[in-house]
Amino acid sequence: MRNTLLIFLGGGLGSVLRFWTVLAAQRCWPGAVFPAGVLVANLLGSFILGFLFAWPAMRARDAGAWFFCATGVLGGYTTFSTLAGDSLQLLLNNHPLPALLNAFGSITAGLLAAALGWQTARFVFG
After folding, report:
1. Quick check: 25 pLDDT over 70?
2. In Å, how far are 21, 48, 95, 116 from 26, measured between CA atoms?
3. What is the band of 53 on the pLDDT scale with cuts at 50, 70, 90?
């Protein structure tokens, strides 16, 4: 029950952080067709998840910390359903190139961001 509560609390926090990230991106790029806020959230979340995988404190996989941070916060912060929905909306609005860039670019860049986070943590923590 404790882990479920940690995931629940972390997921709520992550969802609010994603909402704020999307709002900040809309302020930075008003009127943009491309969903930059979701891309930023997904890449930042991927980087942080990669970092957590290599962080010595997380290597022990303290269940509570892992469930709160990785499953909860990052699970709420990043979202595949929003990525898919934004890409579909771009396609439906006759923006096929941004749709493809969003879908495939986010996945590829997310994987690279996770690897970079993992490498960064290995560098920081030796």
Report:
1. yes
2. 9, 22, 18, 26
3. confident
pTM comes to 0.82
* Whether pLDDT at 59 is above 80: no
Domains in the chain, number: 1
The counts of H helices and E strands in the chain are 7, 0
Range of the domain at 47: 2-125
DSSP3 helix / strand / coil % (the chain, rounded to 5)? 85, 0, 15
Cβ proximity of 6 and 72 under 8 Å: yes
3-state secondary structure of 55: coil
H helix or E strand, kind and range, residue 85:
helix 80-92
Q: Residue 72's closest CA among 12, 1, 120, 2? A: 12
Q: Given this model, what pLDDT does residue 124 score?
A: 93
Exposed / middle / buried, residue 103 (Cβ in 10 Å: 0-12, 13-18, 19+): middle
Which is more confidently placed, 65 or 95?
95
